[in-house]
Amino acid sequence: xxxxxxxxxxxxxxxxxxxxxxxxxxxxxxxxxxxxxxxxxxxxxxxxxxxxxxxxxxxxxxxxxxxxxxxxxxxxxxxxxxxxxxxxxxxxxxxxxxxxxxxxxxxxxxxxxxxxxxxxxxxxxxxxxxxxxxxxxxxxxxxxxxxxxxxxxxxxxxxxxxxxxxxxxxxxxxxxxxxxxxxxxxxxxxxxxxxxxxxxxxxxxxxxxxxxxxxxxxxxxxxxxxxxxxxxxxxxxxxxxxxxxxxxxxxxxxxxxxxxxxxxxxxxxxxxxxxxxxxxxxxxxxxxxxxxxxxxxxxxxxxxxxxxxxxxxxxxxxxxxxxxxxxxxxxxxxxxxxxxxxxxxxxxxxxxxxxxxxxxxxxxxxxx
Length: 368
Known about the structure:
The structure is a single chain. By secondary structure, the protein is mainly alpha-helical. The protein has one domain (2-129, 146-367): Growth Hormone, Chain: A (Up-down Bundle), CATH 1.20.1250.20. It is 75% helix and 4% strand. It has 13 helices and three strands, in the order αααααααααααααβββ. It has helices spanning 2-10, 13-36, 42-71, 76-105, 107-126, 145-154, 157-172, 176-187, 192-214, 221-239, 244-271, 278-307, 309-334, and strands at residues 338-342, 345-351, 365-367. A three-stranded antiparallel beta sheet has the order 1-2-3. The longest helix has 30 residues, at 42-71. Residues 355-368 have low confidence and may be disordered.
């Protein structure tokens, strides 16, 4: 993580992405050729997976921070949301296409098709009009630059709160494969077809959440608070759902809130971080977002095995409410959060004492 964030802040991000995307394509081609020739062994798969993880670790911070060079600060939040929309649409459609291709031409040829798809990405990066990029100031190489990102986040209460909220949701709440599969099999006594249907239903919710995020002018910390609270409520409703239909409706709520939360953490952490530190901060965020879910999966799975799937969803609900408490604590301590009722509705106000962007400080009073 320190190396990957350092690379994103100090190197030319476009050239770095050209290298990482080419390496990903080469890995896909290599595994495809081993599979087609019949030489592939299990240890090969482990080695290629490890290498892909290393390359992805350098690719992800550079790719996320490169968005700001493509569109500029003003459109960054919308660009992040649209990127999530395309990603989740691909995640919903891609496995079905891959499964059909595997059945017709075999796994090896699908690896080769995957490798060939990187040619389009490399051509896109190579053909960018460099003069129109919003090039940002590169970080200066100083002693201790590798761990400077940790110090930077530690000194920022807002970034610490976001990181802790993301840790709670990512570790205990984003284990949807466990939640959906165990509920389908053990509670609703169905098979793979219902699991696939429920997964698609949730994907609809995630795409809807991404589209809603794309329509917002700029992210606010209060949106994180709302997203975590709705996530906790959605997991609670899913845990007590008496049938698969109501469970699916709860999954839509979870999908919308999960995408709202994750998109907002991405946008807020980028927009509120100095450009020279953005790569290292995003590396920390990605390490939490991608690295904590596998840590929490065995814990959630153990709860599902020993106490039942509904209780594992209860763990997700507790994570959502705990993250909301972290957000409330931050807002009360640093943004003067106040709650009041008006015409029978609950309203809250916060003081935007901290800047949403490094270059455009704001001290406005926000009403939500």
